[in-house]
Design brief:
Blueprint (H helix, E strand, L loop, with lengths): L1 H13 L2 H18 L6 H12 L4 H26 L8 H12 L3 H34 L4 H18 L4 H16 L1 E2 L6 E2 L13 H19 L20 H18 L11 H16 L11 H25 L5 H12 L8 H4 L1 H29 L7 H20 L2 H19 L5 H23 L11 H29 L1
Antiparallel strand pairs: 1-2
Helix pairs in contact: 1-15, 2-3, 2-4, 2-15, 3-4, 3-9, 3-13, 3-16, 4-5, 4-6, 4-13, 4-15, 5-6, 5-12, 6-10, 6-12, 6-15, 7-8, 7-18, 7-19, 8-18, 9-16, 9-17, 10-11, 10-12, 11-12, 13-18, 16-17
Keywords: Membrane, Transmembrane, Transmembrane helix
Organism: Serinicoccus hydrothermalis
Protein name: Tricarboxylate transport membrane protein TctA
């Protein structure tokens, strides 16, 4: 009951007229960026990150909630209409969603996605309200060794699971950790990897890296392939933008199953919602095979409903893990963690005691943002496709200018623009060679935490490394990590054997 009373207080803050305005604005901007070709929810958060620093913390994170969920809605819209998912978490939605659009059922597909995202996100928000305080209480018992184990868990799990190659995942992680080490050593105050450049003594801003890797790197990638990739033709989206009673009954079980699959993955560092969305799609596909008249491959509404619910359910519980544990399980969550750090806030158990107004207003804003997005996307989904009429040179030229202005506005330093260009090229190379970006972001954000906690643990034990495995929590984390790695290796070996056959 205490959580409910605190949530009601949070609603009083989230529904304040100015905060409600920021939620609506965040939803609109996040969806608008998410539906643009080649962009996605993580890029929406990256591009709009500099804008929020002019706001006070509660308003900034309430707006971020709108941007975060709005970007996910935009990913689905692009996946359905254009067969171009904004990011990997929306890939599963293209299989049946785009077939529905090609069959003239685009409005119904968009409605299915919007309702699925709302149901998954709403259920996740309810779980977070009751689970996050309990997670925070558990995290309060974490010491330096436990936090190091948690960071190591995120490093290894994310780099090994995301993408087809564990080597590429580890390479991305190493790049992120390398960027994080640039600057002054926090303990000895000696220079590290600065090449004697004074501008690097304070390190490289997470905002610069985020915008460069996610936004500018994508612009370079699109520009490099403009003559190779054929232009995508927008789908017609006329017709009713709601579901009939039979369609709703068809989709409802898939929404429920997708939500159940997605909820646990919000606290497991597997790089985001890619794994649960594919799992939800595969479950529905297997169930469909047992039906008298299979519909998969012909625009099955269940094949779209389940991944959408799973994706947003994962996103919602991921925010709970971020707030209660300080653990980002995806690139977008890592950006959110960086935003907290910019305001001098550290997500974790102490955040609930030090900034309860911010935490509960943010949790309440999840519900508000989901309702606002449902209102926006159900009747106006057809209008978002009009953004695709913007010529590509103007679209990506505008994004490039926005990247530069956003980074320059933070420091007013010309050197940061050079860094933006250099790291943007790194992001482009990573995309060209299919190197995942999530391990880089998580490595940069969690790298300093892992380093500081490792030093604290070793200092407290006079250099005895056994302190790193001295509690049941560390054994539990390392045990779960071992199971995850074994299952991952097993599934990849099976995939290779199947490909060989």
């Amino acid at each position: 009951m205490e959580s409910l009373s605190l949530l009601m207080e949070g609603f009083s803050g989230a529904l304040h007229p100015i905060n409600l305005l920021w939620v609506v604005l965040g939803c609109l901007l996040g969806t608008a960026v998410g539906v643009m070709p080649g962009l996605g929810s993580s890029m929406a958060v990256a591009l709009l990150l500099p804008m929020t620093f002019a706001l006070e913390p509660t308003a900034a994170f309430i707006m971020f909630a709108g941007v975060y969920f709005g970007g996910l809605f935009g990913d689905s819209t692009m996946a359905i209409l254009m067969n171009t998912p904004g990011q990997a978490s929306a890939i599963a939605s293209t299989f049946e969603g785009h077939r529905m659009a090609k069959d003239g059922r685009a409005p119904q597909a968009l409605a299915t996605a919007a309702l699925g995202a709302f149901i998954g996100g709403f259920c996740a928000a309810v779980v977070v309200v009751f689970l996050a305080p309990s997670l925070a209480d558990v995290a309060a018992s974490f010491g330096a060794a436990e936090y190091f184990a948690l960071a190591l868990f995120a490093f290894v799990a994310t780099s090994s699971i995301v993408g087809d190659s564990a080597v590429k995942g580890v390479a991305a992680l190493v790049v992120g950790l390398g960027i994080a080490t640039v600057g002054m050593d926090p303990t000895s105050a000696t220079e590290r990897a600065t090449l004697g450049i004074p501008e690097l003594f304070d390190g490289i801003s997470i905002v610069t890296v985020t915008v460069a890797v996610l936004a500018l790197g994508e612009v370079f990638h699109i520009a490099s392939r403009v003559r190779r990739d054929p232009k995508t033709v927008a789908m017609k989206t006329g017709g009713r933008a709601w579901l009939s009673r039979s369609e709703f009954r068809e989709a409802a079980p898939a929404w429920a199953r997708g939500t159940a699959i997605g909820l646990p993955f919000g606290i497991i560092p597997v790089g985001g919602s890619e794994v649960p969305t594919f799992m939800a799609y595969d479950v529905e596909r297997r169930l469909d095979r047992k039906r008298p008249s299979p519909k998969f491959g012909k625009g099955a509404i269940r094949g779209l409903a389940a991944p959408e619910a799973a994706g947003n359910a994962t996103t919602g519980t991921a925010m709970g893990a971020l707030l209660a544990l300080g653990l980002p399980v995806s690139a977008t969550a890592a950006i959110m963690l960086a935003a907290f750090n910019q305001y001098g806030l550290q997500p974790g158990p102490l955040l609930f005691d030090r900034a309860p107004d911010l935490v509960w207003s943010l949790l309440a804003s999840f519900f508000v943002a989901l309702v606002v997005l449902l209102i926006i996307n159900l009747p106006f989904a057809q209008l978002w496709s009009k953004l695709l009429l913007i010529p590509a040179p103007y679209l990506y030229g505008g994004i490039t200018v926005f990247c530069g202005l956003g980074v320059y506005a933070l420091s007013a330093a010309q050197f940061d623009l050079y860094l933006l260009l250099l790291i943007g090229i790194v992001g482009f190379v990573m995309r060209r060679h299919d190197i995942p970006l999530a391990p880089l972001m998580i490595g940069m954000v969690l790298g300093p935490l892992a380093e500081s906690r490792l030093r604290e643990a070793l200092l407290s034990s006079n250099g005895d490394y056994s302190v790193l495995v001295s509690s049941w929590i560390t054994w539990l984390l390392y045990g779960i990590l071992a199971v995850v790695l074994i299952l991952t290796v097993r599934s990849k070996l099976r995939g290779r054997r199947g490909a060989d056959v």
